[in-house]
Amino acid sequence: MQGTPQWYDWSTFNNARVLEWFTWMKSEIRKYDPKAKAQLKIMPSFFTDNDPASTGIDLEALTELSEINGNDIAAHYNYTRKGKMGWEDKYAFGWRELFLGYDFLKSVKPNQINFNSESHLLSTSHTRDLHMNPKYVRAVYWAATTLGMNASQTWYWPRKADGSLKENFKDNAYGGSNNQQPRVTNELHSTLMDLNSYSEEITAMQHQRKPIRIFYSKTSAHNKGAYMDDLFKLYESLHFEGIPLGFATKNIIHKQEASNWDVILVQKTKQVTLREFEELQSYLDNGGIVIMDNESLKLMNTEWDCQI
């Protein structure tokens, strides 16, 4: 059904409905604590994988609603389910969600801290290895922190302050986790000590200007299941050049200074709303640079605008 008008209407309605609910919840909190900072533990995989389930989770809109960039970004040491995730033949670990997720969050709200309140960098429901190489721990936490992670609560630690196990520890997250990996836990502790010792340098890296921006369209994402696969290929092709990468959306272009970047890349983004097109055109008219392939911005519909 994806790609049909009915799917687009449902997906955008669901996004608006979820955003309205969280906006109401924040307003209720502010009644009792006007200075409270809102943070949502959002699963960025809904964005990075372009989750087809129409979750209602609009990563950009919910991040704009927050004062802290909440997330539970994951990386993948292995894959315990059938088949492959696609990275295994090329890389030591799966980094798509980690890198795309933090670069997107830092593009939407660059000056807010990123709090990974359920860090799945070590394990998830489908990523776990009792004999994990401790070098992976160091690599993935350095990557996450230099990308923008400011604080984290590592999954999974089901122990009380006195060291005893919590009553509800008997779930599928315990076996093969860092609770049974002394080398992994020790390496994590050592890595965090090292990260803290270089905090000023890391903070400077986190706030580097992102001169190259990849255009992200919610419209194309709703309509095309493989949209984020295409965007990741572009991101991947540029990533190892050593230049900080970011994202541009219609909101980012409209709300932020164009001096924050040098160029916007538009690739395989066929369907956009008129407002998305107009923001790109306005940026271009004011001296900006847009590099585009020959298949993007082909379909525009003013009716889509009322939905997003």
UniProtKB/TrEMBL annotation:
<protein>
    <recommendedName>
        <fullName>Beta-galactosidase</fullName>
    </recommendedName>
</protein>
<dbReference type="InterPro" id="IPR029062">
    <property type="entry name" value="Class_I_gatase-like"/>
</dbReference>
